[in-house]
Write a structure and sequence with these properties.
By secondary structure, the protein is mainly beta. Helix content is about 5%, strand content about 45%. The protein contains two helices and 25 strands.
Length: about 375
């Protein structure tokens, strides 16, 4: 316990069914689509919305978790998540690609396998000159103490080859979860958190992800896994996971590009202590994916805000009648304006892929989708 407070004080200041291990590479997303008009959607691309599929068929081991997805320049999708192989309890980073126009995902392959530590919480980013970034955390254990450290590697050929993985200096004890955010001033914001003191922070890059400064703390002791948007006045708005009563997400704002944070308070977003993610759409509206009740974590929703996260007048249930929870959503918008969500399906049996648009979120009654 003494060790916990010492470290906290330091932080304050300072083929399917049988996933076989193949340390092979795969690709990621486009962060430069911000504020661009949506391209016309090809007639055969998701002709009926909403659309739901699995990245791989559900498995019985309940271990596939914490997914992230990006759209590549050729219109293909690439997803990553972590799970252990059949022969080991140690988790690895897996990936799968859905080529543009295809109706199925590729067989999962290993994106990174650390020889010593568990890999977890992968996050993808496609930067300048289509440089591909993979961020994740390694978990080191000493007795009952767990130390998480953020690592990264890059690829200049969409994941066919990678640089050597390395730790990000200054981000020991932290983990990633949500997508990175490219600001209008060119800065790159990396939302991070630490389980050690249940705190949220950001790291900031001036060179599009090659080097980082931080952590810049958002909130101590009450919220983790921040998800961040940039508002039209260039301020930042974040929501953070919190499992304590009154079961609401924490929120905060920043007027200086994430260097300092204020207005820390409970939000109007229900949160039973599970991960949530929001993104700003090309038209300025904001989409949020989240669980809304502690009593039933099978229930996963999408919400829509027309005022940059201040209110959420439209909510729609995506999943609700599985046997086990549906959690850890990851959201993105593609070049056609469609909204994509990945999530850990039915107690981590698979990674589900859900596709829809704003109109579905706004209208109609909730329907069961399988």
């Amino acid at each position: 316990m003494a060790g916990f407070f010492l470290v906290s004080a330091f932080l304050l200041f300072g083929e399917y069914g049988s996933l076989q291990l193949k340390c092979a590479a795969v690709p990621m997303d486009d962060a430069a689509a911000k504020d661009k008009p949506a391209l016309p959607r090809p007639a055969g691309l998701y002709p009926e919305l909403p659309y739901k599929e699995f990245v791989f068929p559900p498995l019985g081991d309940h271990s596939s978790h914490a997914s992230s997805m990006v759209e590549l320049p050729d219109g293909s999708l690439f997803a990553v998540w972590y799970a252990p192989p059949k022969w080991s309890p140690k988790s690895l980073i897996w990936g799968s690609r859905k080529p543009a126009g295809s109706d199925r995902w590729s067989k999962p392959s290993t994106i990174h396998c650390d020889p010593e530590y568990c890999d977890k919480n992968p996050v993808l980013y496609l930067g300048r000159n289509n440089k591909l970034f993979l961020f994740w955390a390694i978990e080191q254990r000493w007795f009952k103490m767990v130390k998480d450290t953020i690592r990264m590697k890059t690829s200049d050929d969409y994941g066919r080859t990678w640089t050597k993985a390395h730790d990000i200096k200054g981000l020991a004890w932290f983990l990633p979860k949500t997508h990175l955010l490219k600001l209008n001033n060119g800065d790159l914001i990396f939302p991070i958190y630490t389980d050690l003191s249940t705190s949220s922070a950001v790291a900031i890059s001036k060179d599009d992800g090659l080097t980082w400064k931080g952590p810049k703390f958002i909130l101590f002791f009450f919220g983790i896994q921040p998800t961040i948007i940039e508002r039209s006045d260039f301020s930042l708005f974040t929501l953070m996971r919190c499992g304590m009563p009154p079961r609401l997400a924490w929120q905060a704002t920043s007027d200086d590009s994430g260097n300092s944070w204020k207005n820390r308070k409970y939000s109007n977003v229900d949160n039973p202590g599970t991960a949530l993610e929001m993104i700003k759409l090309n038209n300025g509206h904001v989409v949020l994916a989240f669980n809304d009740t502690k009593k039933d974590l099978r229930r996963l929703l999408l919400a829509l805000s027309l005022d940059e996260g201040r209110t959420w007048p439209y909510k729609r249930i995506v999943e609700f009648d599985t046997e086990y929870p549906n959690t850890y959503p990851s959201v993105m918008q593609d070049r056609h304006g469609l909204i994509h969500m990945l999530y850990s399906y039915n107690g981590r049996e698979s990674i589900a892929h859900f596709v829809t648009d704003e109109e579905w979120i706004k209208g109609g009654k909730d329907i069961e989708y399988r």
